[in-house]
Design brief:
23% strand
């Protein structure tokens, strides 16, 4: 008798959209979509209802559970949000796993979004052949996570890998090297509103030789490279994976980061730490959320 492959719902909660999909137990996405998050207007209390809407889409598929990736410091064992920033009002302290399970009737797990992206890349992406890797996701903020032998290094309080909070001379890494920080820097240099800054256009201009844009990106790369060098010295991982939408500009970033790391690290360390760019794109969080579900449930 052939076993029927189980399917799961995965959701990756972002500040603007919730990406969701139906995924099989091998991490293959069967179908996917997205919906507005709407937490800024309604508060985080709306999220269980959002998860219910998603669950209803896949009722006929009889999913075996729901795997959720979300911003914030997460108490994974108890399914609670330890802390979330101002973009998610009312989220800090919420027992989000219990609320989703009550709303959907599905067994649920919760994972930090950057940690989920790292698990996804470790399982099926750029890090699938690496025994140890550190993943850095660059977006509105900067997140990070370490994966050793396929499992997250969580730390005593669940905050291991929160590299965006690393303090550099000019501020935190997030203050210096996030996509939003780069947009603000370019806006100030060009004396234009930040909402008028297109990073896609900015990289086009940098490649064409715009000195202001090149200088703004160099600040970002300097902060990111210093943080990566610190990770190498502390963890000595086999691989560092860089993800987030801006890292689609890998051809621009790769040689500059390689040069910076060569100047900061001893040849012994630099010689065996590889740098790669994420392969799963916007699906990494969903895939990693499922990986976390399977590990948490010992499946």
């Amino acid at each position: 008798m052939c076993e029927i492959m189980k399917t799961y719902i995965a959701a990756d909660i972002g500040g603007t959209f919730i990406k969701y999909g139906l995924i099989d137990e091998n991490g293959q996405i069967i179908c996917q979509g997205k919906m507005p998050t709407e937490v800024k207007g309604s508060g985080a209390a709306i999220l269980p209802e959002k998860m219910t809407q998603i669950a209803r889409l896949y009722e006929k598929d009889h999913p075996a559970g729901m795997a959720v990736a979300t911003p914030g410091f997460i108490d994974v064992e108890n399914g609670r949000i330890i802390y979330a920033g101002r973009n998610f009002p009312g989220y800090t302290g919420m027992d989000i796993r219990a609320a989703i399970e009550r709303a959907t009737g599905l067994p649920t797990t919760i994972e930090n979004d950057a940690a989920a992206a790292a698990l996804g890349e470790s399982w099926l992406g750029a890090g699938k052949k690496a025994a140890s890797m550190f993943c850095i996701t660059v977006g509105t903020g900067v997140g990070g996570a370490a994966v050793i032998d396929g499992r997250l290094l969580r730390g005593t309080g669940g905050a291991a890998g929160e590299i965006g909070l690393m303090r550099l001379d000019e501020g935190t890494l997030e203050d210096i090297s996030s996509s939003s920080a780069l947009q603000r820097r370019i806006a100030a240099m060009k004396n234009i509103p930040v909402e008028n800054v297109s990073l896609k256009d900015a990289f086009f201009m940098a490649k064409a030789g715009d000195a202001d844009i090149i200088a703004a990106i160099d600040v970002m790369i300097s902060g990111l490279s210093r943080a990566m060098a610190a990770v190498c010295c502390v963890l000595d991982p086999e691989l560092i994976v860089l993800g987030g939408g801006i890292m689609s500009q890998s051809e621009y970033f790769a040689p500059r980061i390689d040069m910076a790391l060569g100047q900061m690290l001893s040849p012994h360390i630099r010689g065996h730490v590889h740098v790669a760019f994420a392969e799963l794109g916007n699906t990494a969080g969903m895939v990693g959320a499922l990986r976390s579900f399977l590990q948490q449930r010992n499946i």
